[in-house]
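Hi support team,

I've been running sequence recovery on a batch of backbones for a student project. Most finish fine, but this one hangs at about 90% for roughly twenty minutes before it completes. I'm not sure whether the input is malformed or the queue is just slow. I've pasted the structure tokens below so you can try to reproduce it. Let me know if you need the job ID as well.

Thanks,
M.K.
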């Protein structure tokens, strides 16, 4: 990444039939960056990509490419590559001709076209497939031809809209690492739309988490996972438990939050929360620890409750606990104690640094 901004959205908004679909989206994509738009179905990811591509005009705001507003530039003049769900291969054209299509549109000479198609097919590891028709290819191979077709024009930015969603889990993972490799090799700036959080976290330099037409948080995968800024992000990425509490005593290294009669939780001292105010806390489900002994084995395990359910879920068990103040949380444990069964009284808690204070 060179640090230059390749593409920006400035307060881009879209209304369909009176409903606001996108609300003032701001986004700066750096040159060479792999950035994901991640969010549930219907949150506006495809609309955002269509605005960038030029298929949809924003009602307000601007699309900038290389610092220039391109609102009035048609899609084919924006020099963007696209791998969209709807953009299937041409069934009557061979692999070679599918990939060559964009170059022929640009009136390049045949020798250049042959060289660049060969290079693009090599990049997606499909050398020797030139004369095959799409029906003679597997789903993964067709997807790779689609990628080659988009990359061969050397686009300023490659836009990908859930390109792997029709593939089975194993092929999907193989294609994910291939995409990473292609990104590293070509340095092409990529904007990747997905509703799959794991996919976004493993592939991206940065992730924009979208909810109901807004970007709720834009950060590195690690930042998104470790420091979600909103409850939506904490809930959507990974699995979290949430508690309501009241801010109590402030100490030099932590702030105590009272969870009713269940006890208190110590959260990091840097949070700007006023004594006596109500707050929402979150913690990753796999960062909660429990202890079934009569007394807590660590001061961190400062909450009390009772197990109401225990469910085996493969690598972890899900333990549902009702706290003494009646709030319920679900804990994911890889090695739950044998006596952590419904009815058992437990002490529970988590390290100070792992508690999130949410608005
Ligand atoms: N052309 C359109 N006309 C009316 N509503 C639309 C149109 N395109 C998308 N929408 C609506 O906008 C919202 C966001 O859609 P979309 O961007 O496709 O979401 P996503 O890709 O995140 O699933 C949805 O509620 C969808 O129904
Ligand atoms: Mg979509």
């Amino acid at each position: 990444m060179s640090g230059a901004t390749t593409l920006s959205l400035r307060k881009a908004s879209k209304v369909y039939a009176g409903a606001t679909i996108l609300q003032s989206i701001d986004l700066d994509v750096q040159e060479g960056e792999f950035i994901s738009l991640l969010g549930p179905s219907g949150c506006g990811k495809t609309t955002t990509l269509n605005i960038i591509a030029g298929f949809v005009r924003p009602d307000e705001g601007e699309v900038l490419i290389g610092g220039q507003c391109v609102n009035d530039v048609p899609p084919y003049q924006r020099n963007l590559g696209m791998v969209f769900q709807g953009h299937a291969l041409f069934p009557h054209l061979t692999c070679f001709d599918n990939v060559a299509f964009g170059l022929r549109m640009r009136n390049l000479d045949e020798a250049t076209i042959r060289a660049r198609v060969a290079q693009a097919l090599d990049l997606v590891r499909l050398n020797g497939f030139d004369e095959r028709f799409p029906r003679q290819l597997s789903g993964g191979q067709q997807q790779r031809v689609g990628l080659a077709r988009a990359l061969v024009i050397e686009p300023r930015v490659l836009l990908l809209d859930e390109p792997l969603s029709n593939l089975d889990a194993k092929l999907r993972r193989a294609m994910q690492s291939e995409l990473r490799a292609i990104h590293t090799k070509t340095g092409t700036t990529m904007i990747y739309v997905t509703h799959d959080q794991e996919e976004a976290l493993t592939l991206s330099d940065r992730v924009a988490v979208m909810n109901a037409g807004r970007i709720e948080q834009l950060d590195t995968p690690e930042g998104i996972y470790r420091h979600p800024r909103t409850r939506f992000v904490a809930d959507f990425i990974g699995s979290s438990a949430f508690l309501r509490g009241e801010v109590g005593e402030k100490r030099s290294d932590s702030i105590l939050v009272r969870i009713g009669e269940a006890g208190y939780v110590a959260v990091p001292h840097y949070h700007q929360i006023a004594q006596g105010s109500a707050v929402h806390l979150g913690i990753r489900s796999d960062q909660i620890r429990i202890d079934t002994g009569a007394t807590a084995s660590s001061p961190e395990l400062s909450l009390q409750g009772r197990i109401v359910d225990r469910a085996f879920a493969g690598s972890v068990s899900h333990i549902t606990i009702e706290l003494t103040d009646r709030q319920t949380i679900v804990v994911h444990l890889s090695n739950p104690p044998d006596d952590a069964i419904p009815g058992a009284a437990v002490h529970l808690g988590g390290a100070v640094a792992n508690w999130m204070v949410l608005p």
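--
Follow-up from support: It reproduced on our side and the slowdown came from queue contention, not your input. Residues 45-46 surround magnesium ion (ligand 2) (CB under 6 Å). No action needed from you.
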